[in-house]
C-alpha cells in the first residue's frame, strides 16, 4: 500500500522539492496600488515597478485549461501547483511558485500575462516553448465552435435551431443567427 501511495505522489514530491529549491530563500511583496514588486533573494532586496515587467508567464496545471475550452478535465493532486516566470526589462528573471504568491485566481496580477499548461509544473528554466495569451485562447469559445460546426448546415436546419431556441444552448442559437445573417448578406 505504501508503494502505491508513493508512486501516485512521487510527481508531487518532486515538484515540491523543485519549488523549495528554487524559492527557499525568496520573499516577494506585491503592492499594486504603488506599482511595486519587492523581491528578496538570499537576503538581497530588489525593488521593481510593475510596469518594468518584460514578460509574465503563468505555468499552470492542465486542469486550468478548462477555463479556455471547457474540456472538463479532471483535477489531479498536483493541479494546484504552479509557478510564475517573471522577467524584467533589466534582464532579471525570477521563478515564483504559488507557495509564495497565490496567483491561481481569475484575474492575473500583471496585464498581458501569458499562460502555459502542463501535466507536471516543475520549474524548467530552459523551456523555450511559446506561451499563449489567455485572451487569444478564449476567443475560440463555444459559439465559434458552433459556427464551425454549423457552416455546412442548410437554411432549413438553421431555421430549425432558431425556431426551437429552448432546446439548444445559447451559443448554438447565436451561431445559427450569425450564419443566417452572413448567408442573407452574401
Q: Tell me the radius of gyration.
A: 22 Å
Number of helices: 6
Strand content: 15-25%
Classify the oligomer: single chain
What spatial order of strands do you see in the largest sheet?
Answer: 6-5-4-7-8
Distance between the termini: 66 Å
Taking the sheet with the most strands, its summary is:
5 strands, mixed
Low-confidence stretches: none
Query: How many structural domains can be distinguished in the coordinates?
Result: 2
What's the SSE pattern?
Answer: HEEEEHEEEEHHHH
Helix content: 25-40%
Average pLDDT confidence is 83
Give a count of the beta strands, DSSP E runs of length 2 or more.
Answer: 8
What structural class results from the helix and strand content?
Answer: alpha+beta
Shape: elongated
Structure, explained:
The chain is an alpha+beta fold. The longest helix is centred in the first third of the chain and has 22 residues, at 2-23. The model has no long low-confidence stretch (mean pLDDT 83). The protein has six helices and eight strands, in the order H-E-E-E-E-H-E-E-E-E-H-H-H-H. The chain has helices spanning 2-23, 66-69, 134-139, 142-150, 155-163, 170-185, and strands at 26-31, 36-41, 44-49, 53-61, 83-88, 93-97, 114-118, 132-133. It has a five-stranded mixed beta sheet with strand order 6-5-4-7-8. The protein has a three-stranded antiparallel beta sheet with strand order 1-2-3, with no helix packed on it. The chain folds into two domains: 2-139, no CATH class; 142-185.
Amino acid at each position: 500500500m505504501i508503494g502505491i501511495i508513493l508512486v501516485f505522489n512521487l510527481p508531487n514530491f518532486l515538484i515540491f522539492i523543485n519549488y523549495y529549491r528554487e524559492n527557499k530563500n525568496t520573499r516577494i511583496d506585491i503592492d499594486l496600488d504603488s506599482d511595486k514588486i519587492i523581491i528578496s533573494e538570499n537576503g538581497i532586496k530588489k525593488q521593481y515597478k510593475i510596469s518594468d515587467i518584460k514578460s509574465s508567464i503563468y505555468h499552470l496545471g492542465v486542469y486550468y485549461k478548462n477555463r479556455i475550452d471547457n474540456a472538463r478535465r479532471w483535477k489531479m493532486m498536483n493541479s494546484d501547483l504552479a509557478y510564475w516566470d517573471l522577467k524584467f526589462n533589466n534582464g532579471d528573471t525570477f521563478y515564483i511558485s504559488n507557495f509564495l504568491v497565490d496567483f491561481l485566481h481569475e484575474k492575473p496580477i500583471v496585464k498581458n500575462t501569458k499562460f502555459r499548461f502542463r501535466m507536471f509544473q516543475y520549474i524548467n528554466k530552459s523551456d523555450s516553448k511559446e506561451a499563449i495569451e489567455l485572451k487569444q485562447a478564449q476567443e475560440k469559445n463555444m459559439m465559434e465552435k458552433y459556427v464551425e460546426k454549423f457552416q455546412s448546415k442548410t437554411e432549413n436546419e438553421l431555421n430549425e435551431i432558431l425556431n426551437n431556441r429552448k432546446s439548444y444552448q445559447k451559443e448554438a442559437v447565436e451561431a445559427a443567427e450569425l450564419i443566417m445573417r452572413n448567408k442573407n448578406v452574401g
